[in-house]
Amino acid sequence: GNSVTQMEGPVTLSEEAFLTINCTYTATGYPSLFWYVQYPGEGLQLLLKATKADDKGSNKGFEATYRKETTSFHLEKGSVQVSDSAVYFCALIDSTDSWGKFQFGAGTQVVVTP
Amino acid sequence: NAGVTQTPKFRVLKTGQSMTLLCAQDMNHEYMYWYRQDPGMGLRLIHYSVGEGTTAKGEVPDGYNVSRLKKQNFLLGLESAAPSQTSVYFCASSFYYEQYFGPGTRLTVT
Question: What is the 8-class DSSP label of residue B19?
Fold first, then answer.
C-alpha cells in the first residue's frame, strides 16, 4: 500500500537558519505530493504541491522537488523565521485511487527560536 | 466564503455518551473526510465521502458512523464514546486533489 515517512521532530532551529525536512514515500501508482502546515490550534493548510516527477513546488519561501528516482519530496527553506514554527506534514494521493484518499506522514514539529 | 467549518470546537463527554460532530463546507466540493489526530500518529482517516449519499470506511472506522445527506454537510457520530476516542477531529473537503481543512474539534472522553 501507499505510505509516507517523514523525519521525526521536534526540529529546533535559530532564526535565519536553513531548514530541511525529509519525506520519502511509497506508492503503487503515480502520486501527487503535498506539504501541509499546521500552526498551533489550527487546521492544516496546503503549503505546496507537485503533481509529477521533477516538478518543484514553492510557496512562502519553502520549496520541495518531486524526485521519483529517490521517491522523495524534501521540504526546504533557506532562512526560517519564528513565524515558521509549526507542524509540517508530507502527504500523497495516488492517481490510481479513485476515491481520492490522502496518505499523511506523522508530521514534523519545527520550533524556531529568536 | 467560510470554507470548512466544524461544530463544536470543544466537547467533554463521559464514557458511553453519544454525540455528533458537524462539518460544513461552502465550496461545493464532492469529497469530504473525517480524520483524527493523535500525538505522534499524524492524521488517520476515519470515514470519507465521494458525494451526497455516499460514505466509505477509512483507516480507523470502528466506533464511528457518518452521514452525508446533503452535499455541503458531513456528520460524524459517536454512539457510545470511549476514552480511546479522546482526540482532535478534523474535517476536510477536497477539489482536484487539494484538501481544505476545518479548524478542528477537541474531544475529551472521561
Answer: E
Q: Which residue of B43, B56, B104 is in closest CB contact with A104?
A: B43
d(CA A92, CA A4) in angstroms, rounded, equals 7
CA distance B39 to chain A (A): 9
For residue B78, with 0-12 CB atoms within 10 Å meaning exposed, 13-18 middle and 19 or more buried, which class applies? buried
- Per-residue pLDDT of A33-62, as tens digits, reads 999 999 988 899 999 999 999 999 999 999
Contact B74, B52 (CB under 8 A): no
pLDDT (tens digit per residue) in B48-88:
999 999 999 999 999 999 999 999 999 999 999 999 999 99
Instruction: Please give, rounded to a whole number of angstroms, the shortest distance from the CA of B3 to a CA of chain A.
Output: 12
Choose among B40, B45, B90: nearest Cβ to A101.
B45
Distance from CA of B80 to the nearest CA of A (A): 26
Three-state secondary structure string covering chain A: CCEEEECCCCEEEECCCCEEECEEEECCCCEEEEEEEECCCCCEEEEEEECCCCCEEEECCEEEECECCCCECCEEECCCCHHHCEEEEEEEEECCCCCCCEEECCCEEEEEEC
Indicate the residue of A34, A99, A104 with minimum beta-carbon distance to B48. Answer: A99
